Every structure is written in structure tokens, then in C-alpha cells.
Amino acid sequence: MHVSHKHVHPVSSRPTAADVALPPALPYPDGWSALAFSAELPPGTVLTRQLAGEDVVLYRLRNGRLRAIRPYCPHLGAHLGLAAVEDDQLVCPFHRFAFDADGRCVRTGYDSPPPKAALAQLPVREVNEAVLVWRHHDGREPDWEVPSWHVLGDGRQPLRYASFEMPGYAQDVMENSFDLGHFVTLHGWPQGELAAPVEFDGTRFHISMRVRETFPLLGMRQVDVEVDGYGLAALHTDVRTPSLGLEICSLVMATQVAPGRMQLRQASRFVMREPAGLPPAVARAVSRAATALLAGPMFKRNLEFTAADFPIWSTKKYVSPPRLAAGDGPIGAMRHWARQFYPPDQRAHLAAPAASPAAGAAVATGSTPDGLPDGLPDGLPSGVARG
Fold this sequence. Notes:
Elements: H1 18-21, E1 31-37, E2 46-51, E3 54-60, E4 66-69, E5 84-86, E6 89-91, E7 98-99, E8 105-107, E9 124-127, E10 130-135, E11 160-167, H2 170-175, H3 180-185, E12 191-194, E13 198-201, E14 204-215, E15 219-230, E16 234-241, E17 246-258, E18 261-272, H4 280-307, H5 310-315, H6 331-338, E19 384-386
Parallel strand pairs: 13-19
Antiparallel strand pairs: 1-10, 2-3, 3-4, 5-6, 6-7, 7-8, 9-10, 11-18, 12-14, 13-14, 14-15, 15-16, 16-17, 17-18
């Protein structure tokens, strides 16, 4: 018999979401964070998005210029997420105080002289058809950038994108690229290995992988995967299957919106290269037709690949130190590198400034807080290259 009552809830057998079950394990990271895609902000649009526990208001002026501001009007504190764009001004809904493109108050709602007031603007970039906002714990200005797409970024292929919100940490998303073991156990790759040592270069890293993957009706094929990470903000992955002429470029961006909670934005472009051995005009037509036909299914497959991690990210605990094993990949090296994006006074349980184990190496006993062996000189071992 079904009983309905406001104090009665169905019995649950699901894991509790990590941001409910566990105290926050990682501080908010410094640097760039993606808050929207460009297509979500046509001229005249005002959006409110969260970043590190606070609202950020994004808006685009009629002339196309983009702005990111702190959310409260300097007059009497109205939330500017309710504001409207009129010509090249943002107009507060409370007293209709208007702010020009530089954020200065230029008009009141009752024709009196405007006060000396200005909006609190935040550094904002529009890159890879995404909107990124800068935040740093000590208020410093941007000192690194997320670069433009290095492949498939000519605009000829439409960008497909999706956004999600879930418990988890931006670092978990970036760390996944180093977790070689989970590509086999969770994602079902028959075989995968590093094609070259992992490279760390300041706020960037690069990973090359060589994968053997099974395609329906086509059998096992080699897939080349190149991953570039920029801070804890963005992963750019270029996946090529040379024997089939397939190439897909993906951008995955995790944004920490609250303690233990993130938004994930994913975008991609796909292309089928022109087949060899055909007349140029025919090859071009085949490429365009195949790209148009397969772009949607390839994006869906790309999302499904990432979505396999969603239940894990949403319920996992940040374990420090991790008990790493052979075959894990250079996770310790990644955590060592990631320390730079957190405030110095909040790094106590993060990777200590020592060497990390070689890719796939078992962790020695007597380790630092993130599984890095004690007593080793500062530096990176074999399997990990410094840029």
C-alpha cells in the first residue's frame, strides 16, 4: 500500500552525494573558470552565474562587448542579475541607475546628478567560444591565460556544447587525465598507454596517449589522444583515429561553484578528413557529408564517455594520502603540480613539495600527505617531463 505524507520519504539505496555527506576537502582554486558559453550571451543578455560561493553577473552590451561584475549595485545593493541592458548601459532595476561600458554610473532614475560610483568589474575573457572569469584569493590580476583552440578552431564546424552541475571538485576532472587505470576499468578501453612522458610547463600540462579501441564493424583501431590542461580550468583533448580519418576536439571545463560542488561544461567539434585516393572535389564532398552526418552522434558519444565519471565524481571522497598502485598513472605528479592553484595557507593536506613517483610506480611507505615519497629531492622523475 502506498502511503503519502510530507514527512515520509522513499527508502534510498543510493550513495549520498559527496557535497552532502562529506566536509569540503579542497579550497577554491585560483585562476580562470568557465561560467558560460558565448552562445548563451547574445547582445543585451544578463546572466547570473556562481563562482566560488558568490554570484557573478555576466552581460553583453549591444555593441558586443562582454562584462563580468560583482552582483550588487553600489547605490543601495540591488542584485544586478535583475538589471537590463539598454543601448550600451546596464540599468539597475531598483532606482534605474545606469552604468556605462566602463562601469561608471552616468545616470539616475530621477534626473539628479549621478554619484561617483562604479561597478566592481572582474577580469573576463571570451576564448574557445566560452566565457571565463578570473578569481584569485589575493586579488591579483591574471598572470596566465587559456589559449585558443589549436585545432579545429577555424569556425567552419559548429560548436556543440552542454553544461551540468554536480558534487565534485575541479581538480578531480583534471586528475582524470592522469588516471590511466580508470580508462580501462571505467571507460572500457581495451588498451592504453602514455606515448611520451607527461610534460608540466608552469600552469599547463600535456599528455600524449596511444589507445587501442574497438569500433563497431571496423574492429580494433589505434587512437592518438593529445591532452592539454590549463590550470584547474580547462582540458583540451584532440582525439585522432588516423586509419579512419576521424578527429574530434573537446573542451572540458570544471568550475567550483560552492564547497564540494562544481559545474561542468563540455564542448566539441568533429571532422571527417578528406579520404585519400579520390578526386579533390569528390573527397571534399565526402568529408563534408560524413562530418554533417556523424557530428551529432560523435558529440553524444563524447558526452557519454565523460558522463561515465559523473557518479564517481558526485560521490567520491578526496583521499589524501592515496594508496596508489602500479598502473595508476602519474597521479602524484599531477597533485604536486596542482598545489600552485590553492592559497598557501590551505595546502596542509595537499601534495608536499617533493618529487612524485614515476608514472605507474607503486607508492613507497613513509610518504608525504598525497602519497609522494619522503626524502626525495625536489624535481620530477622519469615518465614526467618539465617544460
